[in-house]
C-alpha cells in the first residue's frame, strides 16, 4: 500500500461494468428478437412503441430506485397510479364537464378541455405527493416496516379504484390529456431539442475542465474529452433521427428523459442524493453523522408519490380512460426493473440509469414476445425466469469481486 | 534465530512461500514459517501487515487457488476448494474472531452445537446436547451458564462460547484473531487462563493481538509480519516488547505515548447531575464533570460501566431520556440529537467504526465528507471538486493509506478505516471531540499517529474526551481521568495521582461483584 498521493487521478469516465453488461444483454436481446421477427422488432415503428411502453413503468422504477436505495420498498405504486388514473378520468369525464362551463362561460370547448387537463394534472401530482407523504410518514416516523405499510397502501388504493369506478370504465378523456401519452413532437422541434442537448453536453464538458483546473486536479487531454462528448452527442442525434424516421419524438418519452436526467442529477450531485445512499448503506452511521434519516426516507416516498402522479397521468392518457385494472402489477415491473438494473434490495446501491436500462430490458422482452405472438402464459414464465437469472448473475459477479 | 529450534520439533503447520495478491496490493509476499505442535504461537504486525489475510487463508475463506505457495497441516498439504470454512473445520482448524458471531436469541448450548446438533433420526436429542455442553464447559473450565441466552452474556463470555464452539469439533489448531480487543482487563486475564488450559490439553493456538503484553504472558513463539513479509520468528523468552515493536514498525519506538505540554484553558463543557434512563434502567446516575479547552479528559471503566452511554448521552443519543444540565462555554444547552450536538461543535468518533462510523460500501471520500457536505454544497448541488480537494487535505493530514479516495472503505485495514472516521469528524472543526475507544484493534504504529493527532488537536484548543479500554493508554494520554462504574462516576483523578491500581480500584467499586474478578 502506498500513501495517498494519487488522488489527482480523478475518476475516469465512470466505468460501471454492471451497466455495460446490461447494455450488452439488451443488444443481444434486440438482435435475437430482430432475427426472430424478421426485422419487425427492430423497425423504427416498433422501437418507438417499445419506448412508449416503458415510460409508465420507468417513472415508477426511477422513484423506486430511491426508495430501495434507502433500504425500503414501495409495493403500493401499481394501485397508486391506478387510483390516480381513475381520479383523473373521473375529474375529466364526470366532474369538470358539469361545472367548468358554468364557471367560465366565455371559454370555447377546446380551451375548456385544456383547462380541465391542466387542473387534472395539478390535482394528480398533488394526490400522488400526498399518498407518498402519508405512507412515507408512517414508514419513517411511525416505524412500521415499509413492506407492511405499502402492502396495506396497495390494498387501500386498489379499493379506492373500485370505489371510484364502481367496476366500470370511465370515459371520455380530453384530447389534450391523451396527447401527453400518445402525442408526437413534429420533426423540427425534435431536432431543435437534440441540438440544445448537444450544446449542453459540450458546455458541461468544458465547465468540468475549468473546475478541475481551478482545483488543481488532473485533466484529460482536450481531444479525449471532446471525443467523449461527441460520442454522446452522436447518440442523442441518432436517437432523434430514428424517432423522426417514424412519427417523431414521443411526448411521454421526452418526459421520461427529462425526469431521468433530473433524478440522475438529484442522486449524484445533491446532498439529498448523497444522504439516500448513506442511509441505505449504514443507517446508524448516517444518523450519527448528523443526517436526519427520517426526513430523508419521507422525502423518497414523497418523490415516488410525485412520480406516481406523473405515471398516473400518462396511464390515463395512454388508455384514454380510467379502468379498474389500471396499474395492476406495475409495482412488480418497477421493482424488477430496478433490481435488474443493479439496485440492491439490501440498500445503499443502485442508479437511476441502471433502473431505466432494467426497465427497458423488461419492456423489450414483453414487446418482443408479443411481436412474436407468443402466448401470454409463456411471456410471464420467460419474464420471471429472466428476472431471476439476471439477479443471479449480478449476485455471483459481486461475490467474485469481493474475493 | 528461534526458527531453528522449531525445526527440530514436530510441526503442526508449515507455511511455505505463500503469496497473496489483491487488486493493486500484495497482501502477503513469500511468507514462510512453522508452528510447533502444542504451542501458542503469536502472530503480530501492524494493520495491513497481512495477519488477517493469512488467517483467512488458514481458515479456508480464501481457497487454495486464490494464493500461491503451500501450506502443510500435519504434513498434509491444505487445498481448500471453496471459500466456506467447513473444509477447514473438517481438517481441524477453527477460528475465533474479534467479534463473536453467534445467534443472540439462542442459548449457549444451542450455539455451541449449531449445525451439529446431536440427533436421533432427525430429532434433536436435547438432553445429550445439554449434557455435552456441560461436559465441554467443565473440561476447559469455561465459566458460562450453558442455558443462558447469548444476548444476555458479556462480550467476554460470548468469546468463551466461541471457543467452546470450536472445541466441540475436536479441533487441532485454534486461531484467535484479536480475541481480546473487546474485552476488559478481568476478562483478558480469564481468557489467558483458558488458553493455558487449552495448551495443557494439547491444542495448538495461533494468537493474534494488538496488546503486546499478552504475547509475553502466553505465547511460546512470535512471528512478526510487516508489509506482507515475515520479519522473523522468535522465541518469546528471547525477546522483549521493545524488540517486537521495533520489528513491527521497522524502527525503534522509544515511547509509546508522545509528550505534550498541556495548558488547559477556560471551561468549555460542564456536565451537572447527568442521568440517563434507558429501557427502564438508570444507565447513568448523577454524573458531573467538566472539560477545559485543550484538555484531554480520559474516561476509564470496564465494558458496561456506562462510559459509552455517558458520552453518547452528551451527543444527544438518548434525547429526552436525559436529565441534568449541560453547559457549553457557560451557556445551558439542550442536545436532543446528533445534529444538535454537531451544531454546538461536538463530534463523536463512535465505539464501533463498522456499525456506527462508516458506510463501508461507499468510497473513502464520501465517508469523509458525509457529515460536512454543507461546506461545499448549496441546496442544488455539491461542488465535487472542492469536496475532493478538502477530503484529500484530511486524508493527507491523517496519512490514510488507501489506493485512492475512490476506494471502497471496506477494503481498507482497520486502522485506516478508523482514520477515515476521525477525518470525517475533524472536517467539522469540532470544539469538543469525543473519542470512544479510538485505538481499539489498531496497531502500535497507527496508535502512535492517532495519539500525536489527539495531542495536536488539544494544543489547538479542542477539548477532548477519550474513552479507552487500555489503562496504559488512559494513563499515557489524559490530563485528568474520570472513572466510571455501573453508571456512576466513582472518581476523578489528576494525571499525577493516577496509577493503574487506583483506576482499577475505582472501576470496580461496586455493590455487585464483577463476574470473574
UniProtKB/TrEMBL annotation, chain A:
It is a multi-pass membrane protein. It comes from the Bacteria. The keyword Heme does not apply. It is found in: Cell membrane. The chain crosses the membrane at residues 20-42, 54-73, 80-99, 111-131, 138-157, 189-206, 226-243, 249-267, 301-321, 333-362, 374-393. Pfam families: BPD_transp_2 (PF02653). InterPro entries: ABC_transp_permease. Keywords: Cell inner membrane, Cell membrane, Membrane, Sugar transport, Transmembrane, Transmembrane helix, Transport. Signal peptide: none annotated. GO terms for cellular component: plasma membrane. GO terms for molecular function: transmembrane transporter activity. Part of the binding-protein-dependent transport system for D-xylose. Probably responsible for the translocation of the substrate across the membrane. This is Xylose transport system permease protein XylH. It comes from Candidatus Infernicultor aquiphilus. The lineage of its organism: Bacteria, Pseudomonadati, Atribacterota, Candidatus Phoenicimicrobiia, Candidatus Pheonicimicrobiales.
From TrEMBL, chain B:
The keyword Membrane applies. SMART domains: AAA (SM00382). It is a peripheral membrane protein. InterPro entries: AAA+_ATPase (IPR003593), ABC_carbohydrate_import_ATPase (IPR050107), ABC_transporter-like_ATP-bd (IPR003439), ABC_transporter-like_CS (IPR017871), P-loop_NTPase (IPR027417). It is found in: Cell inner membrane; Cell membrane. GO terms for molecular function: ATP binding; ATP hydrolysis activity. Its main location: membrane. SUPFAM superfamilies: P-loop containing nucleoside triphosphate hydrolases. Signal peptide: none annotated. Keywords: ATP-binding, Cell membrane, Membrane, Nucleotide-binding, Repeat, Sugar transport, Translocase, Transport. GO terms for biological process: monosaccharide transmembrane transport. GO terms for cellular component: plasma membrane. Residues 13-252, 269-511 form the ABC transporter domain. This is D-xylose ABC transporter ATP-binding protein. The lineage of its organism: Bacteria, Pseudomonadati, Atribacterota, Candidatus Phoenicimicrobiia, Candidatus Pheonicimicrobiales.
Amino acid at each position: 500500500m502506498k500513501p495517498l498521493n494519487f488522488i489527482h487521478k480523478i475518476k475516469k469516465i465512470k466505468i460501471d461494468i454492471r451497466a455495460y453488461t446490461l447494455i450488452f444483454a439488451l443488444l443481444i436481446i434486440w438482435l435475437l428478437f430482430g432475427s426472430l421477427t424478421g426485422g419487425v422488432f427492430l423497425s423504427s415503428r416498433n422501437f418507438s412503441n417499445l419506448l412508449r411502453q416503458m415510460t409508465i413503468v420507468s417513472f415508477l422504477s426511477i422513484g423506486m430506485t430511491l426508495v430501495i436505495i434507502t433500504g425500503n420498498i414501495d409495493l403500493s405504486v401499481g394501485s397508486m397510479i391506478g387510483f390516480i388514473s381513475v381520479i383523473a378520468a373521473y375529474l375529466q369525464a364526470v366532474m369538470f364537464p358539469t361545472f367548468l362551463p358554468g364557471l367560465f362561460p366565455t371559454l370555447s370547448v377546446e380551451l375548456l378541455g385544456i383547462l380541465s387537463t391542466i387542473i387534472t394534472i395539478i390535482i394528480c401530482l398533488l394526490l400522488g405527493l400526498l399518498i407518498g407523504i402519508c405512507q412515507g410518514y408512517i414508514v419513517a416516523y411511525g416505524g412500521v416496516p415499509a413492506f407492511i405499510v405499502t402492502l396495506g397502501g396497495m390494498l387501500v388504493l386498489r379499493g379506492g379504484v373500485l370505489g371510484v369506478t364502481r367496476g366500470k370504465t370511465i370515459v371520455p378523456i380530453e384530447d389534450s390529456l391523451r396527447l401527453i401519452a400518445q402525442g408526437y413532437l413534429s420533426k423540427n422541434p425534435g431536432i431543435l431539442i437534440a441540438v440544445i442537448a448537444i450544446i449542453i453536453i459540450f458546455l458541461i464538458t468544458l465547465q468540468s475542465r475549468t473546475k478541475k483546473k481551478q482545483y488543481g486536479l488532473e485533466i484529460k487531454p482536450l481531444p479525449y474529452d471532446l471525443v467523449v462528448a461527441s460520442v454522446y452527442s452522436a447518440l442523442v442525434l441518432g436517437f432523434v433521427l430514428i424517432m423522426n424516421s417514424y412519427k417523431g419524438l414521443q411526448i411521454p418519452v421526452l418526459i421520461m428523459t427529462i425526469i431521468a436526467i433530473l433524478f440522475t442529477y438529484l442522486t449524484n450531485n445533491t446532498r439529498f442524493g448523497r444522504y439516500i445512499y448513506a442511509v441505505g448503506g449504514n443507517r446508524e452511521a448516517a444518523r450519527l453523522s448528523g443526517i436526519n434519516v427520517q426526513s430523508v426516507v419521507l422525502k423518497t416516498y414523497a418523490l415516488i408519490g410525485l412520480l406516481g402522479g406523473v405515471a398516473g397521468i400518462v396511464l390515463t392518457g395512454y388508455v384514454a380512460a380510467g379502468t379498474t385494472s389500471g396499474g395492476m402489477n406495475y409495482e412488480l415491473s418497477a421493482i424488477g426493473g430496478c433490481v435488474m438494473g443493479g439496485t440492491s434490495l439490501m440498500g445503499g446501491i443502485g442508479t437511476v440509469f441502471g433502473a431505466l436500462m432494467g426497465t427497458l430490458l423488461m419492456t423489450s422482452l414483453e414487446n418482443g414476445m408479443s411481436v412474436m405472438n407468443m402466448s401470454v402464459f409463456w411471456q410471464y414464465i420467460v419474464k420471471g425466469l429472466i428476472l431471476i437469472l439476471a439477479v443471479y448473475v449480478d449476485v455471483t459477479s459481486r461475490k467474485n469481486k469481493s474475493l | 534465530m528461534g526458527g531453528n529450534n522449531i525445526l527440530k520439533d514436530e510441526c503442526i503447520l508449515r507455511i511455505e512461500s505463500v503469496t497473496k495478491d489483491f487488486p493493486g496490493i500484495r497482501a502477503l509476499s513469500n511468507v514462510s514459517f512453522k508452528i510447533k505442535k502444542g504451542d501458542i504461537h503469536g502472530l503480530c504486525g501492524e494493520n495491513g501487515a497481512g495477519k488477517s489475510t493469512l488467517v483467512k487463508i488458514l481458515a479456508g475463506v480464501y481457497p487454495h487457488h486464490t494464493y500461491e505457495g503451500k501450506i502443510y497441516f500435519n504434513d498434509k498439504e491444505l487445498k481448500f476448494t471453496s471459500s466456506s470454512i467447513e473444509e477447514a473445520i473438517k481438517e481441524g482448524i477453527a477460528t475465533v474472531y474479534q467479534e463473536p458471531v453467534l445467534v443472540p436469541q439462542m442459548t449457549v448450548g444451542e450455539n455451541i452445537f449449531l449445525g451439529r446438533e446431536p440427533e436421533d433420526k432427525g430429532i434433536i436429542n436435547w438432553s445429550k446436547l445439554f449434557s455435552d455442553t456441560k461436559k465441554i464447559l467443565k473440561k476447559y473450565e469455561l465459566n458460562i451458564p450453558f442455558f443462558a441466552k447469548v444476548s444476555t452474556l458479556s462480550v467476554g463470555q460470548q468469546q468463551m462460547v466461541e471457543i467452546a464452539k470450536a472445541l466441540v469439533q475436536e479441533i487441532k489448531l485454534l486461531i484467535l484473531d484479536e480475541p481480546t480487543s473487546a474485552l476488559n482487563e478481568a476478562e483478558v486475564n480469564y481468557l489467558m487462563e483458558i488458553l493455558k488450559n487449552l495448551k495443557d490439553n494439547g491444542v495448538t493456538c495461533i494468537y493474534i493481538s494488538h496488546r503486546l503484553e499478552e504475547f509475553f504472558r502466553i505465547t511460546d513463539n512470535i512471528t512478526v509480519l510487516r508489509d506482507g513479509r515475515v520479519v522473523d520468528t522468535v522465541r518469546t523468552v528471547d525477546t522483549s516488547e521493545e524488540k517486537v515493536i521495533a520489528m513491527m514498525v521497522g524502527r525503534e519506538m522509544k515511547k509509546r505515548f508522545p509528550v505534550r505540554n498541556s495548558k488547559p484553558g477556560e471551561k468549555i463543557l460542564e456536565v451537572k447531575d447527568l442521568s440517563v434512563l434507558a429501557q427502564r434502567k438508570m444507565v447513568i446516575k448523577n454524573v458531573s464533570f467538566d472539560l477545559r479547552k485543550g484538555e484531554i479528559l480520559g474516561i476509564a471503566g470496564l465494558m458496561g460501566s456506562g462510559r459509552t452511554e455517558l458520552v453518547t448521552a452528551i451527543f444527544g443519543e438518548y434525547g429526552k431520556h436525559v436529565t441534568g444540565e449541560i453547559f457549553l462555554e457557560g451557556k445551558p444547552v439542550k442536545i436532543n440529537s446528533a445534529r444538535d450536538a454537531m451544531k454546538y461543535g461536538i463530534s463523536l468518533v463512535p465505539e464501533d467504526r463498522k456499525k456506527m462510523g462508516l458506510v463501508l460500501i461507499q468510497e473513502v471520500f464520501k465517508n469523509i465528507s458525509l457529515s460536512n457536505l454543507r461546506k461545499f454544497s448549496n441546496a442544488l448541488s455539491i461542488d465535487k471538486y472542492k469536496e475532493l480537494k478538502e477530503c484529500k487535505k484530511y486524508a493527507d493530514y491523517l496519512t490514510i493509506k488507501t489506493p485512492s479516495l475512490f476506494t471502497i472503505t471496506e477494503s481498507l485495514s482497520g486502522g485506516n478505516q478508523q482514520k477515515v472516521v476521525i477525518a470525517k469528524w475533524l472536517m467539522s472543526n469540532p470544539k469538543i471531540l469525543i473519542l470512544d475507544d479510538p485505538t481499539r484493534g489498531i496497531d502500535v504504529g497507527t496508535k502512535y499517529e492517532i495519539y500525536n493527532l489527539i495531542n495536536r488537536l488539544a494544543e489547538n484548543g479542542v477539548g477532548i474526551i477519550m474513552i479507552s479500554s487500555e489503562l496504559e493508554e488512559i494513563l499515557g494520554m489524559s490530563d485528568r481521568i474520570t472513572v466510571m462504574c455501573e453508571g456512576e462516576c466513582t472518581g476523578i483523578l489528576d494525571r499525577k495521582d493516577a496509577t493503574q491500581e487506583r483506576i482499577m480500584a475505582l472501576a470496580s467499586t461496586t455493590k455487585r461483584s464483577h463476574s470473574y474478578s
